[in-house]
Amino acid sequence: MANPGDRVKVETKEKTIEGTLVPTPETGGDVVFIKLDSGYNIGIDKKSVKSVEVVKAYKELSPELVLLLFLCTAFCGAV
After folding, report:
1. Closest Cα partner for 37 from 61, 9, 58?
2. Residue closest to 16 by CA, chosen among 38, 39, 48, 40
3. What would the pLDDT profile of 28-52 be if each residue is shown by its tens digit?
4. Three-state SS for 5?
5. Cα–Cα distance between 74 and 15 in angstroms, integer?
């Protein structure tokens, strides 16, 4: 089963789409939302989905790594 944040490949009746699974809003229960590599989000009607394959599971970063990335971004470019 795919979870929000997972990289997925969604096969529909017409084509295959790959992107990041986005959390579904409460009002969008019949739609699967995918963030494409282009940055656009698309909604796919669940009735047209044949399969969803997890390509890469989402892995949350540790708080220490988040802090390190923040510090590097904030201070490494300030030189």
Report:
1. 9
2. 48
3. 678 899 999 999 999 999 999 999 9
4. coil
5. 42
Note the pLDDT of residue 9.
97
**30 closest CA partner among 44, 16, 12, 9:** 44
Determine contact, residues 12/45, Cβ cutoff 8 Å.
no
| Cβ pair 62, 70 in contact under 8 A | no
0.90 cut: is pTM over it? no
Q: Where does 1-78 show beta strands of DSSP type E?
A: 7-12, 16-22, 31-35, 41-45, 49-56
Q: Which two tokens stand for residue 60?
A: 């949350």
Query: How many Cβ atoms are within 10 Å of 19's Cβ, its own excluded?
Result: 19
Give the residue among 42, 39, 4 at the shortest CA–CA distance from 24: 4
Rounded CA Rg of the chain? 16
